[in-house]
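S1.2 Input.
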Amino acid sequence: MGNREPERSSVAITPTQLNYIRKLLAQKASGRAAVAISKIHPADIAELFSVSLTPAETRMLVDLLFSQLKAGVVLAQLPDSLLTEVLDDLDDASIARILKRQDPNDALQFLSQLDPDRHDSILKLLPESIRYRIEQLMIYPEDSAGQCMASSYMSILPDLTANEAVEQIRSQSEDVDVPFYVYVVADDRMLLGVVPLRRLVTCPQDTPIRELMVDDPFTVDTDDDVEEAAAIARKYDIMAVPVVDGSHHLMGVIPGDSLFEVMEKEATEDMYRMAGLSDEDSVFTPVPTAFRQRFPWILVNLVTAFVASTVVRMFEGTIAQFAALAAFMPVVAGMGGNIGNQSLVVITRAIALGELDFSSARKALFKESSLGLLMGLVAGLVAAAVAWLSSGDPSRSFQLGIVILVSMVANMWLAGLLGAGIPLTLRAMGRDPALGSNILLTACTDSIGYLLLLGLAMLVIT
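S1.3 Output.
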């Protein structure tokens, strides 16, 4: 999670190299595999863990990474489910060797993937200074700003000139996690302001820091959800967010790469929840675990599908009298689902970004429903023309076209309204707007689409 220097001697891996290294591991040619791995960037080495290595091959790869002091930086690139699988096969001493070379945030991330019963035994194997820094982060709630903050950043006192500040920064540690900003603090670590590093090094040397600094920078408290920090960074276009305690003392800074990871995780969670998936699901999730996580929503989907099928059964007689209706049922329902999903994604994302309040929500509802109505009219005219031209019964072709047109316009208008209304309603109820919205929307558009098409057909045609 901390910023790392580029691997100058590393090159990007190619599929051919990936297969070559895997073959070397299978042949237990550890010497040649070590040479090959030494020339590859850690992020690319991590791809080797996702190519179905055997347990013996995985262990050999981990041993090679230990020998090259790359184990920590490579394993930090793995998705959580795969990281857990690899760490579970390592003993406490091996994990402690990794944590010794990690920054505290990454070390805590590694520990969180392990059985809590192993935490104490692993921490006891670490040097006291490292153990203390990790335990300090463990005090804060999970996914809080306090757990994600870095303690390595540049800070200066306010009563300096720009030249004096630069000299003071030079005397500080070179390995900082926040290279873009310099934080101005009082003697008691009270946060006073922030100076962009570029402004500091380009201004006249005798410029007072108080003239350069931005007073009262955006901050989050240690117990705030880290997503609040990500929202601040996204809204105000800043690359790091300082973390303060209740007395406004600077406790740490959440660096840009951590904020990016949070934003990426947010987007993934929204996407997964809309589809009824667990946040932890991935291509590496074991089948039994994935089954337990996914099946409840599949069961909900099955129930809603029965609702739609019940609507169809109500009109068996109408379908029997005019079989051409059956060909247009998936068209009407599918187009409604497509329009609704577009509205759903737009509104859910707007909610996640904090772009909607009460007045703008009403405008969004009107816009999405109007868009559904307009697109329904155009698509309905096309579908009606197809129905009229393809009907084998000229006496009913016009009636069929009218039924298709009206049902598509109505269903797509309602789909736009529901696609915007469902996430807004869930948010008003204090629920996650993305949680299962897609399944609920599909159930509505299918059932309503069938009801409109077959109900109108019964009234007009039969």
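S1.4 Remarks. The longest strand covers residues 178-185.
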